[in-house]
Amino acid sequence: MRPLTEEETRVMFEKIAKYIGENLQLLVDRPDGTYCFRLHNDRVYYVSEKMLKLAANISRDKLVSLGTCFGKFTKTHKFRLHITALDYLAPYAKYKVWIKPGAEQSFLYGNHVLKSGLGRITESTSQYQGVVVYSMADIPLGFGVAAKSTQDCRKVDPMAIVVFHQADVGEYIRHEETLT
């Protein structure tokens, strides 16, 4: 468990900023304490300073995980967000997409969101902007990337993809052996 290097921090913050923008500062400086990001086995964990001090007594090879896994670095040094970060990204999301009840199951199986399944979209969402996907009952289901801008979504045909799938809460079941 070590702090992120300057380059790793930049890559990770750029990825998270796609979804929550300048609200990134609110993740680190929280009213309930100071939180930080730590790297362990190519995975980035979001952990409180208090818990980090307690974990210092555990050797690296014995430590499996600590805090919440936000994502991992690939072999090409790109950062990939995990669905476990959804609970922390959803409250601060700048751009949101709500999908209809009929499209929820399709999204939770790992498919993209089609125009026919789109309920609402945040105004002024640009193309390729990171979005958090909600059900119509305001329950966060996952996140993705907007395939079309808000303006384009109005005039596109119903079978066109409007949100590219990135991660969803169905991954807890589909990939339970690899999520740590």
TrEMBL record:
PUA domain residues: 95-170
Keyword annotations: Nucleus, Ribosome biogenesis, RNA-binding
Record has Nucleus as a keyword: yes
Annotated Gene3D superfamilies: 3.10.450.220, PUA domain
Cellular component terms (Gene Ontology): nucleolus
Record's keyword annotation contains Transferase: no
Major subcellular site: nucleus
PROSITE patterns to which the protein is assigned, alphabetical: PUA (PS50890)
Listed InterPro entries: NIP7_N, Nip7_N_euk, PUA, PUA-like_sf, PUA_sf, Ribosomal_synth_fac_NIP7, UPF0113_PUA
Subcellular location per the Swiss-Prot or TrEMBL entry: Nucleus, Nucleolus
Gene Ontology BP term (one): ribosome assembly
The organism's place on the tree of life at top rank: Eukaryota
GO MF, any single term: RNA binding
Xref: SUPFAM superfamilies: Pre-PUA domain, PUA domain-like
Complex formation: Interacts with pre-ribosome complex.
The protein's role, per its UniProt record: Required for proper 34S pre-rRNA processing and 60S ribosome subunit assembly.
PANTHER family found in the cross-reference section: CYCLIN-DEPENDENT KINASES REGULATORY SUBUNIT/60S RIBOSOME SUBUNIT BIOGENESIS PROTEIN NIP7
Homology family: Belongs to the NIP7 family.
Protein name: 60S ribosome subunit biogenesis protein NIP7 homolog
Annotated organism of origin: Heterocephalus glaber
Higher taxonomy: Eukaryota, Metazoa, Chordata, Craniata, Vertebrata
Designated gene of the protein: NIP7
